[in-house]
Amino acid sequence: MWAVGIGLLLFAISGVWPPMVAVESGSMEPQMERGDLIFVMEEGRLAGDGSHGDTGVVTYRAGQNSGYSEFNQPGDVIIFEPNGDGQAVPIIHRAMFWVDEGENWYDEANPDYVGTATNCEQLTNCPAPHAGFITKGDNNGGYDQASFGAHTAPVKPSWVVGKAKLKIPWLGHVRLQFGIATPPELLEAETHPVTNSAPNSTDSTINSIAVSA
User: Which PANTHER family match (predicted)?
Assistant: First the structure.
């Protein structure tokens, strides 16, 4: 029962259930490595300087200007549902910058992260189909919205599950080895539910999800 109490305390602090994720792949290295356990907080809590609107999320670009950083780089690392699909595997990547609906964001993008595209017409999700965050795994070669990593449209605020706030190295190996059976194919920085127990569950383990960063 002590584990249930700890789980409820973590939930009260984070506002997210489950409040922990275990990193399962390498797209966020070296900031997050396979087996790290990550504490997740609801995105509106403890918003950093330069957060976009009422989202509570600070982008990489805004973090450069304000001095705000998480996991050794500017901006927040967010957990989100790709393309807003609640049945899909969640993703944990860094929010890079914000785009408005219809925006030609090619000129705002880092040319190193758009592959072979030389203009908006050649860039996936450009012009932006809707407003949202452009995201990227720290160790990936390009933006998710440019068909690298997660392959998702700009991330709407409603798709964001939470923000990564704290890393406990290697502790997630326990969940990865015993909590789930790893599927044969994984997206970069995707997440897999370990258990669907609610916060008032009598399960003796602290619920978490495994994430392949």
Answer: SIGNAL PEPTIDASE COMPLEX CATALYTIC SUBUNIT SEC11
